[in-house]
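User: My advisor, Dr. K., asked me to get a structural model of this assembly before our group meeting. I'm new to this, so sorry if the format is off. These are the inputs:
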Amino acid sequence: EVQLVESGGGLVQPGGSLRLSCAASGFTFSTYSMNWVRQAPGKGLEWLSFISSSGSAIYYADSVKGRFVISRDNANNSLYLQMSSLRAEDTAVYYCARMKLRSGELSSPDYWGQGTLVTVSS
Amino acid sequence: DIQMTQSPSSVSASVGDRVTITCRASRDFSSWLAWYQQKPGKAPKLLIYAASSLQSGVPSRFSGSGSGTDFTLTISSLQPEDFATYYCQQADSFPLTFGQGTKVEIK
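Assistant: The format is fine. Below is the predicted structure of the whole assembly, which you can bring to the meeting.
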């Protein structure tokens, strides 16, 4: 069974930093590209970042470019999101999501974790 | 960036009704469009990918169609467990973008 479990969320002050982790199991993690997607309270879904299976290709949404860094550790089946210069508008539930396999082309997330809440407030 | 616009924003329907949700893209793109269902406090669930392919385990009352800029999700006979918010998402290019969501409510 595919499982994605996020951790690392919490309350942080504006300007602060936080590192989210996502532990993957039930599939060959090193084969799949991964994403981070967030959802502000009462709002829709916002894609944040993508990392390819090897880590060689990385993309960010403009809203987090230069502040967030995605990375992965295939040996430990883990995905990370290092967040810095956090703002109130970064308050959201953060999901890690596996990208559906599709040879050589973009696809869509097919499995999602349960999410971890990040609250940016003084 | 490709903007995705869903309509309606909300719909009230009864069990057994046929429900159709539309997603329009700001420009023409390949047919890799996905539909998700999200219930309160839960992660999104993939229903449809590549515009019309049913994700494994998803009931056949869900179907998708469309190409170019206009896509549709249809629920042929609404069930109690289908009351949720639905999102479309394009995978033509980065940034991946979602529609704003359509809430399906009980009439």
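One thing worth pointing out at the meeting: The mean pLDDT of chain B is 96.

User: Perfect, thanks a lot.
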